[in-house]
Amino acid sequence: MTRPFHLSDYNKKVLDHYENPRNVGRVADADAEAMAGNPDGDRMRLTLRIRQGVIEAAKFQTFGCVAAIASSSMVTELLRGRTLDDALRLTNRDVVEALGGLPDVKLECSVIAEKAIRAALADYRKR
Ligand code: FES
């Protein structure tokens, strides 16, 4: 029998990003906006302000588990100040690493952040 999952299975940094998420909300007059989802129904909205090929601001709204919210919060921090090419190179592994790791069973949850970057940048290119 597998043991139930506990909040204490997350490290302090993950819990901090869950309890005090950075950059929650929507960027006003966003230059890019997208929704991303994980197969279990969790959802993340990412909005970006982009000036001269650089991401000046990133904000998120996520309906999801602790790992999805912490990953969303962290990715907004990682995106700020990056060029679009650099942002496209970010993966969920970078997000997990910046968070100091996630429990194995929660690694998949971080993929939502990577999907949101790609979707938001695709939206930017369409405009
Ligand atoms: S359980 Fe759905 S994203 Fe974590």
Description:
The chain has a single domain, classed as Sufe protein. Chain: A (Alpha-Beta Complex). With 127 residues, the protein is of the alpha+beta class. The termini are far apart. The protein is elongated. It has helices at residues 12-19, 66-79, 84-88, 92-98, 111-126, and strands at 32-37, 43-51, 54-63. It has a 3-stranded antiparallel beta sheet with strand order 1-2-3, covered by helices on one side. Helix content is 39%, strand content 20%. The protein contains 5 helices and 3 strands. The structure holds FE2/S2 (inorganic) cluster. FE2/S2 (inorganic) cluster is lined by residues 38, 40, 42, 64-65, 67-68, 109, 112. FE2/S2 (inorganic) cluster binds next to helix 2.
Task: Describe the structure concisely.
The chain contains five helices and three strands. By secondary structure, it is an alpha+beta fold.
Q: Overall mean pLDDT score? A: 96
Helix content: 25-40%
- Class from secondary-structure proportions: alpha+beta
Instruction: Describe the sheet with the most strands.
Output: 3 strands, antiparallel
The CATH topology assignment is: Sufe protein. Chain: A
Q: How many extended strands?
A: 3
Provide the number of structural domains: 1
Topology pattern, helix = H, strand = E: HEEEHHHH
Cα(first) to Cα(last) distance is 51 Å
Q: Which runs of at least 5 residues are low in confidence (pLDDT < 50)? A: none
- How big is the Rg? 14 Å
Count of helices?
5
Strand order of the largest sheet: 1-2-3
Q: Report the bound ligands by name, code or SMILES.
A: FE2/S2 (inorganic) cluster
Report the CATH architecture.
Alpha-Beta Complex
Give the overall shape, derived from the CA principal axes: elongated
